[in-house]
Amino acid sequence: MRTIIEGGFVASVDPVGTEHRAGHVVIDDGVITTVGAGPTAAEQREDAEIIDARGCLVTPGLINTHHHLYQWLTRGYAQDAILFDWLTALYPLWSRIDADLTRAGAAGAMAVLARSGCTTVGDHHYIFPKGSGDIVGAIVESAARVGVRLHATRGSMDLGASQGGLPPDFAVETTDAALRASEASVEQWHDASFGSLVHVAIAPCSPFSVTADLLREAAMLARSLDVRLHTHASETVEEDAYCAERFGKTPTQYLEDLGWLGDDVWMAHCVHLDERAIERYAATGTGVAHCPSSNGRLAAGIAPVRDLLRAGVPVGLGVDGAASNESGQLGIEIREAVLMNRLRTGADSFSVRDGLRVATMGGARVLGRDAEIGSLEPGKLADIAVWRVDGVEHAGILDPVAALGLGAMPPLHRLLVGGRAIVVDGELATAEEPIIADEVAAASRELAARL
Ligand code: ZN
User: Fold this and answer.
1) Ligand 1 center to 297 CA (angstroms)
2) Count of domains for the chain
3) Would you state the pLDDT for residue 291?
4) With contact defined as beta carbons under 8 Å apart, do 383 and 32 qualify?
5) Cα(408) to centroid of ligand 1, in Å?
6) 0.90 cut: is pTM over it?
7) Residue 373 contacts residue 9 (beta carbons within 8 Å)
8) CB 3.0 to 4.6 Å from 86: which of 8, 78, 239, 289, for a disulfide?
């Protein structure tokens, strides 16, 4: 089966940043086979489905490297708090979550991600109350319903407040239970094949909610299972102070000593990294999920993305959980990244094309999928966003990439995952949006009522 996207401004995000003002992309059986300038060759058009992309910007599908999908049910809480106070306010609510509620929240969060150009969803789920059912399975189910590619993680917390951690004791698991469940999730859901729709990584939550034992053993477990590792790191000055007081180390030193730097690891946030930490991330190939909106919402600070990129660190983009980023739209994070990084390092330090690259190839590197997704190149999966830039928001704009990186988020003409259209003319094509919205509203009410 062949599909051709034709006539749009193609930003391939290949290694040299090739762009075609009016180009074409040919897709055969879900894989990109040709990317070029001008119209498609006549012999290629026979029996093909043609997507007319005139007036559109064609980019790789965006890749989200950090989220907590269940938080879709807890938007609007603790609006003016910093991280530790915000977490403390929300833990009691989150610890009432179960698989059914997570399924509804995840579908809502992923529908909004898809509607904002996201084709690959990274999730970090770390709260598993007793008797809450198969939460990872529920997330996998919702990803299939929406049609996105999923990088689930089996997260965990085992350091309750009575042991010096931040979460209340009722929100944590035992170290052994967390490790056993992490292994079981990988064995049940992780698929490492080319074009896989579900990967699973192992993801203890953060240095202030997890014991050193769990971090060390989770790293060994992930490596024995050949899956990636993920956690939160260096998000706030309070975390720095916690690590200094408790371990006498920076978060980076602490994590490195536990086996947590490496090219199979990615960390969320990395706002407070000193020069030495950036050097260690670069030397080890450790990836970073940059979450500008969430960092702004919680006033955590601005991550040193320019310095990370110059050092060669893989950097992707993340919306983070919707409790600290009620938008949940990945498309607008490109603009947030451009604006925030310019505030930190100057107007010429981070271009719209830097933003697009971080949101696509950067994310692919961070998730270890750079051979399969992240750019429009022959041999890669047809995960493609076709953005309308000829509507009232953008008609006449000099540069279509600036429409995405500086302007309003453009509506989607099409969003393809492995060649399958999951968004058509700005709306989800795989599920009924009003039904998902009703389910989210009911689940949010139900969770609030459990408190
Ligand atoms: Zn997070």
Assistant:
1) 12
2) 2
3) 98
4) no
5) 25
6) yes
7) no
8) 78
Question: What CATH number is given to the structural domain containing 384?
Answer: 2.30.40.10
Average pLDDT in the 104-130 region? 98
- Coil/strand/helix, residue 382: coil
- Rounded to the nearest angstrom, the distance between the alpha carbon of 67 and the centre of ligand 1 is 6
211, 177 in Cβ contact below 8 A?
no
What pLDDT is recorded for position 41? 92
- Among 245, 254, 333, smallest CA distance to 289 is for 333
Q: What is the whole-number distance in angstroms between the Cα of residue 232 and the centre of ligand 1?
A: 6
What spacing in Å lies between the alpha carbon of 13 and ligand 1's midpoint? 27
* Cα of 155 from ligand 1 centre, angstroms: 11
Residue 342 burial (CB count, 10 A): 16
Among the candidates 349, 366, 383, a domain finishes at 366
Look at residues 173, 211, 108, 32 and name the one whose alpha carbon lies nearest to residue 447.
108
My answer on whether 361 and 409 are in the same domain is no
Q: For residue 56, which amino acid is it?
A: C
Separation between Cα atoms, residue 289 and residue 317, nearest integer Å: 5
165 in the same domain as 202: yes
Mean pLDDT of the 37-50 span: 94
Residue 1 CA to ligand 1 centre (angstroms)? 39
DSSP labels for 287-312? EEEE-HHHHHHTT-----HHHHHHHT
Residue 68 CA to ligand 1 centre (angstroms): 6
Residues 6 or more apart whose CB falls under 8 angstroms from that of 114 comprise 146, 147, 148, 415, 422, 423, 428
- By residue range, what is the domain housing residue 15? 2-60+373-428
> Of all residues in the chain, what percent carry a pLDDT higher than 90?
100
Tokens 């600070």 found at: 301
Output the CA 310–ligand 1 centroid distance in Å. 24
pLDDT at position 28, please?
98
- pLDDT given at position 212: 98
Question: Same domain for 134 and 109?
Answer: yes
Find the 111 Cα to ligand 1 centroid distance in Å.
Answer: 19
Q: How confident is the model at residue 76 (pLDDT cuts 50, 70, 90)?
A: very high
Instruction: Read off the pLDDT of each residue in 118-139 and give the average, rounded to a whole number.
Output: 97
